[in-house]
Write a structure and sequence with these properties.
Number of domains: 1
Strand content: 35-45%
Radius of gyration: 13 Å
Structural class: alpha+beta
Number of helices: 1
Number of strands: 6
Distance between the termini: 28 Å
Strand order of the largest sheet: 5-4-3-2-1-6
Shape: globular
Helix content: 25-40%
């Protein structure tokens, strides 16, 4: 499970056996949601946050924090996904404690 970011206590990560579409998981205090990235002609056109079967989804302020982070770091997340799953490179974990918005 490669962790790629931590933002205000939310762990953003991939499972090591992921599949397309490109997506990440956000986990905080037993709650977990995933975000799928829709990419058209090399540009991110939409980010969909979805629940995960068997987990309580992120809600309230933590869901908003996750959404804000995804919006600000979407390009970096997609690049880390490609580096890890396509090029089989190690990805660097980054901890961000300062609020984006």
């Amino acid at each position: 499970m490669p962790g790629i970011f931590e933002y205000l206590g939310i762990l953003i990560f991939f499972y090591s056996n992921e599949h397309e579409p490109i997506h990440v998981h956000g986990k905080y205090d037993g709650f977990e949601s995933k975000a799928e990235f829709l990419i058209v002609n090399g540009k991110i056109t939409e980010i969909k946050i979805k629940p995960i079967k068997g987990y309580r989804p992120l809600t309230g302020p933590k869901l908003k924090d996750f959404e804000d982070f995804l919006e600000a770091y979407s390009d970096q997340i997609v690049q880390k996904w490609i580096d890890y799953f396509v090029y089989h490179k190690d990805v660097e974990f980054e901890k961000i404690n300062k609020r984006i918005k």
